[in-house]
Structures are given as C-alpha cells and as structure tokens.
Amino acid sequence: MSEENSELEERIIAELENVTDPELGIDIVNLGLVYGADVDSDLNAKITMTLTAMGCPLAETIVSDIKSALSDLQEFGEINEVDVNIVWNPPWDKSKMSRYAKIALGVAD
To answer: What is the pTM of this model?
Structure first.
C-alpha cells in the first residue's frame, strides 16, 4: 500500500466517525464496527465492517449513511466507488469499542 493510499484510508476512517449507529448514538468507528477501509488502484473504496447483531434492521440505513459520509471524497475525485462489505467474522463484542464509546454507553471494561 502506498503512503498516499494510507493517508486516504485514514481520511476515510475519519469521515466514518461522522456515521452514527442509530440505536446506540455512537459513531461506528468508536463502536469498533469498522474493520478496515481499503482503496484499490482505481480509487475504489472498500469498507469492511460488522454490525452489533445479525439481522440488524438498520443495516441499510448505516450503509446509506456511510456512502453519504464519503460523498465529499467522491465529489472531489479522491475516491470513486464505495463498497460496504458487512462481515460476521470476527464477531463484534464490546471489547472492540473505544474507551470513549465505553464511557458514553456506561460499559465497564
């Protein structure tokens, strides 16, 4: 991965901090739902993430919010397509949350 792609992937993750889980009210990055953001040589972004529970009724909303959050990067030609890949392995658990998210939700370590 080039340094340029690495910086772009970091910016994508920063933009994803603006996407809030509608049920928990905390962003998906601090919840530990985002496992990765990869940009290929064609500047297509692939977001690998999970959800707090299988069958989450808000999955489509979260995917839509992700695409919306990254639309500025698309508009300025920094990335092209955005693909959101929802995976179940490794499964999510509260240990993946940041300290901020744990404090905000009152979850003990």
So the answer is: 0.91
